[in-house]
Amino acid sequence: MFYGMLVPALSAIFIIIVGNKLLAGQVDRGSMAYLLTAPVRRLTVTLTQTLYFIGALVVTFGSMTVTSLLVNHYAEAGFAKKILVELNFGALAIAFAFAGIMFLASGVFNLSKLSLGTGGGLNFSFHLVSRDCFFCQLRGQWVG
Whole-model pTM? Predict the structure, then answer.
């Protein structure tokens, strides 16, 4: 249940908040205009924001992988280490997909509310229609 619901949901919250603030949030606050008055290309700013987003996700899921392996070892839970690493890698791949959607919405729309509505709405709707969604588990039914 942790990898089926909580990891994608918690990472989606992080992705929606950070992804919205990367480009569209800076345009709303006016800091993007200030940043672009310097001799810095837009591509450089966008690549820097992209590398930060990727790095933040890798550090988050890397620390989650190390923590789950340590807890598995010291609690003697008996899970296979390979399975835990593969689960965390799969969750990272899903987080990259959600981050790509949110970053695209943040780059396309110059208003934070439009970016949040589009990127966050798509990410939230993908969680709702997924097989292991929270609402399906509450009803006791499985979709698919």
Answer: 0.80
